[in-house]
Structures are given as C-alpha cells and as structure tokens.
Amino acid sequence: AAFIQTAKLNYKFDSRPLIADGFSNGANIAASLLLRYPDLLAGGILMRAMLPFEPDGLPNLAGKPILIMSGKQDPIVPLDQPKRLAELFRVAAADVNIEWASAGHNLTPSEITKARDWLSTHFVEK
Fold first, then answer.
1. 70 beta partners
2. What is the pLDDT of residues 56-69, one digit of tens each?
3. Active-site amino acid positions
C-alpha cells in the first residue's frame, strides 16, 4: 500500500482510478489491499484468488467492482475459498461477480477476454 501511494505521487496518476489485476498470489495481495486499504483501489480482477486472511471487520467497499475468476478443477485453490472471498466482498457492499471456468489453476483464453470486457464495462471512459 505504501509503495502504491508513493508511486501515485511520484508518477502523478492519482487522478485516475487504480484497478488491481492479480493472478494467484498476486490476486491474494490485491484482495488484501481491498480489505485493508479500501480507499486505495477502485476495484479489482482477482484470478485464482483465495481468502488471504479472515478479517476482524469489513471495510466499506460500496459499489467497488470486483471480478473473481476461479477454476472448477483448481488443485491449489479449494472451491470454498473464492466463494468465501466473494461473500465477504458482498457483505462489504462491493459489486462482485464471480466467474467459474472449467479449468485448473491456469487461465483460459476466454477468461482473458472476459476480464478485458469486464474492465471495459466498468472502467473505460465512453
């Protein structure tokens, strides 16, 4: 979080929404940032994410779009993990979509297309 805040100042991109896009542990880091620093990110695409920790309390994520992309046959991420993460984000009032692919821990080309389309729908200025 401190690195992102410093980079926003140094590279002067503070006026634009910052969206996390992470795969596997990168998605877990993005989920942690959303849960611990709710004002830092405008939303996120979390691919093959797990619940990074069970929070003591939930932040206000009202209306923040979050896309969780999970594999039905993922040998690393148990099915209950993305479901629990989505549940927590929903309780925190985020706008959560969870997508299930017939895949393992790998991403499929159709998921990349879905992520691009989701990003365009939620964050690209018309």
1. 100
2. 999 999 999 999 99
3. 24, 74, 105
